[in-house]
Specification:
The protein is mainly beta. The strands form 3 sheets. Strands 1-2-3-4 form a 4-stranded antiparallel beta sheet, with no helix packed on it. Strands 5-6-7-8 form a 4-stranded antiparallel beta sheet. A 3-stranded antiparallel beta sheet has the order 9-10-11, with no helix packed on it. Strand 3 and strand 4 form a beta hairpin.
Length: about 130
Amino acid sequence: VANHVEGEPAIAVSVEVEPNFIAVGPYHIAVGMNNRAWFYILGEKGVEKRKDTEYLGTVVSMYLNSDYAAALFEGKVQLHMIESEDQETQEDRQTRLFPGRDDKCRILSHALTADFLFYGTVNGTSICSV
């Protein structure tokens, strides 16, 4: 990992697997293989492994923002918090699966910004979720 804008030196990250996908956010890195992802925090003291997550299917791609990860697998996107300071945080805020239970569409692509999750479906629709 390198920050060429601010001229900081590169940081090597040792990971447990040879990843199929990598996602980089402002404070975290995620690497994964099949249905698992390992999350690392980029801190003042270097890189530290925070947690690993299992998904309900093989992850095709993943995006991170400062708080959330969005993983695409089997036509669905799981949006979840990367870290939770309070283990009692409401489940609705911690994780959500798209599309909703009533929607029968299949997601083909997605993107995550600081405030929005965008996804495109097999039906040709693009959806923005807050």
